[in-house]
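ugh finaly. both done.
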Amino acid sequence: MRIHALQDAVQSAHLPGLIDLTPGIRSLQIHADPARIHPSDLVATLQQIEDTLPSTDRLTVPSRTVKLPLSWDDPATRLATERYMNSVRDDAPWCPWNIEFIRRVNGLKSVDEVYRTVFDAQYLVLGLGDVYLGAPVATPIDPRHRLVTTKYNPARTWTAENSVGIGGAYLCIYGMEGPGGYQFVGRTIQVWNRFHHTGLFAEHPWSLRFFDRIQWYPVSAEELLEMRAEVEAGRGEVEIAEGAFDNAEYTRFLAREGDSIAAFKDRQSAAFEQEKERWRASGEFDVAPEPESFAAPEEVRVPDGCTAVGAPLTSNVWRIEVEPGQAVEAGQRLASVEAMKMEMEVAAPIAGVVREIYVTPGTQVSAAQVLMAIDPGQARRDAA
């Protein structure tokens, strides 16, 4: 809250040479032109501004309640976890289901209790741009709703746009498709829209503001897809209630509920310690030697008359789209591979029939390694 107050005060001062302000949770990055304001003069001015701010316990800031839909355990998040297991690692403690992992490390009795905790919470937005493009970093106002997790290690190579996850004690909405490491709970509508300037995006391409309170309500995966289409078209409606966040009132709340909050944290801490002991026993903390290189692929002999389909680069096979005996057209997708946090399509170089497939999902392949063989003559023979 003090960083927020400092940002507002610096903006109101209209300092010469000020280019940009980037607030973090505990810091304020100030970008200024040294040709117009000397750094030492800027620091002195900032100290004067800081001295004029009221004490933190007297700060009150605007705080909207923004109700957003959440598709719990959305198929897109399940797919991201499946891809992670196929191409990165399949033995991680948070696999195959992130929500069960969240339940376990927080000492909750059931997955339903995780569900109720997420939907009962109000998540206070403390930062924007955490995972690029207006993504909020938020934490529950009530510490008893503050679920904690570890992040993926190694990170995922793919996350669906607007997936919702928890990392540490923070919740994030991914602003765009990309890599990631937060533990999934679901998926929501867009938080970034540079084409339409209506509704949540009337002022900026990003939808949320500092100190917004996100309140989730449940929708099905199918309902969410319809809502996402409406938001994409600039027609989506979101319920917003104006309000304020009073730090003094919040401090009194923490004192009043102190015993209950302490009991929750003790249970949570004990559960996390038990989880770490399981990891230690399973070798999760052991240092594994890095492989020197990809294992040499088995020698493949492509049948006479067939065309080899090679890997575009060193990568992991994510998905095989065809099966032996299947007729394919030139340019048709045969497989997908992942490398460097990107997915690439492997297309058929010619029309024909898939004669043989030499890899499976999860296989590590080197550049030009043969993935499958296509018989261009088989289709002609079958037609005859």
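ok and the 2nd:
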Amino acid sequence: MKVLVTGGAGFIGSHTVDALMDRGYDVTILDSLEKPVHLKGKPDYLNPKAGFIQADVRSRNDMLNALDGAEAVIHLAAYQDYLPDFSKFFSVNSVATALIYELIVEKKLPIKKVVVASSQAVYGEGKYLCDKDGIVYPDIRPESQLRAGDWDIKCPVCGEKAQHQLTDESVVNPQNQYAVSKYTQELISLNLGRRYEIPTACLRYSIVQGPRQSFYNAYSGACRIFCLNMYFDRQPTVYEDGESLRDYINIQDVVDANLLVLEKPEADFGVFNVGGGRAYTVVEFAKIVAERFRKDIEPKIPGYYRFGDTRHIFSDISALESLGWKPKVSIEKSVDDYINYLNEQTDVEDILDYAEKKMKTLNVVREARK
């Protein structure tokens, strides 16, 4: 079977390509190699046996060329950042997804399955329990609350502190431009897929970790940020009070999920969380990274926050587990793998100051006034 992997030169994409080829699939990569993620051009870790097309997923002609002969698509290409260039999120994420289905329908392409990468971000704050009002789904915390250094989630009904719960796939509440664009990808792909009988599955990834994650993207997650700080013997900055809960998942577990829903008809027209099965506070994770580096460096907690961040998010993975998948790789192994990858590099630049200053200049990172 020939599979097109959009975003196949990226972190998740390249590992997925490797796994597909190990199973005997014929794979074509379509990737724009956009900076800053691919600051130095085409990465040398790409599988040389895969076909490669450098193109924008929004290009009709290039996408049609890439789909030629394909029987399945794993759609991983996306724009993600904290930048306020709102239209780009929808142009790259939403419009490109619609284009894939448009071409399949218009050209009557023999696509047997489309797998679409979504994100845990679609939940916003996710599910909470209020002692008075039961299950609630809070909206984004107001700026006035964050500016005052009050980090807790409040019940939207009574205003009292609410307790975080495991979040399943049933209710979404996207709160930033990236999250909204990812949810629109789901709506486009699932609705058009059902209407035109194109089997489709969507995967909502938690925070994915492992080697090949870009050093140069300000959006990239905690593992990359904390590891780079340890590498340069610097104190990592932790936002808010460091007690936010996060759900981390290893890249190999994500690849296993990608291939499972590609190959299982039972996944058709489903949406599935892909998470690690355990939540960690950001401070806990920072300490794990320091321990794996064997360095005694504590994080600093200066009271900064990223406007639009969720307080807590932890995905319920039981739906995907019911198909036979489960996370297998420990968080310590994820960190070790990234450290090994980092140590293999010969030209890693200290870009941490640049990334932090850029986000402050754009008013993404803000300071609480207690």
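summary for the 2nd one i guess: The chain has a mean pLDDT of 92.
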